[in-house]
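JOB MANIFEST
job_type = single_chain_structure
chain_count = 1
residues = 259
[input]
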Amino acid sequence: MTGAEMVAVAAAGFAAGGINAVVGSGTLVSFPVLLAVGLPPVPATISNSLGLVGGNLTGAIGYRRELRGQGRLLLGLIPASVLGGLTGAFLLLHLPAAAFEAVVPVLIAVAVVLVAVHPLVKRRIARRHPEGAPELRIGPGRRTALFGTAYLTGTYGGYFAASQGVIQIGLFGLLLREPLQRLNALKNVLTLTVNGVAAGAYVVVATDQVVWSAAGLLAAGSLVGGYVSSRYGRRLPEPLLRTAIVVLGVVAIGVLLAG
C-alpha cells in the first residue's frame, strides 16, 4: 500500500470503529476502502473482521453503564454468539470464493436498506419499550427465541459483518423490553464476541488470507474510533452518518460488480 492508502485504511478503521459503537454498520465504511486499495473480497472480509475487533472492545467498554442488570441475559446469549461466529467463519472459509463474491453484493444491498430504515425501527422500539418500563419475565419460549436470534445474527456476522448490529438491535428490540441505549450496549458485547471468535478462527486456519498490514491499520484506527464514539458518539448527527454509510455501501456494490 502507498502512504495515502495506509492513511485511508486507518481512517476507515477509525470511522468504522466509531460507527459500530453507536449504529452498527462500520463494515460498510471499511470494506469498500479495503476493496479500493486492491484487496480481493475474501481477504478483505477476513482482514476487516480482524481489524475491527479493537473497536468492538472499546465500544463495549464505553457502554458498560448500560449493561448493568443484563449479566444473566448476556450469559445466555454469548454462547449462541460464539457458535454463530464459528459457523459464519466456517462458511466463509469453506464455501467457494466465487459464491462469496456473488452473495456479498446482495448482503450489502440488504444491509444498506436496513441502515436506511433504521430510524423507523428505532421509533418502533421506543414506542414498544419506553424508558423506565419494567422488563417482562423472560420465559422459556422467549429465551429460546433470543438464543436463536443471537446464533443466526452471529452466523451472519461471522460470514460478513455488515449491519450485524443493526439487525441485532431490530430483532432484540422485538423480543426485549429495553430502551435503545441498553439494546445498543447488548449489541456491542455480542458483536465483539462474534467478531472476536471469527477473527480467532481466521488467524488459526486462514493465516495466509490475512493481510496483516491492512488489519493492523484498521485495528489502530478502530480502537481509537470505538473509544471516542462510545464517549461522544451520541452527539453525532445520525442522518449524516446514515447517508455516508448508504453511499459507501452503494460504492462497495459497484466495485464488486465491476470487478
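[summary]
The mean pLDDT is 83.
The CA atoms of residues 201 and 257 lie 28 Å apart.
exit_status = 0
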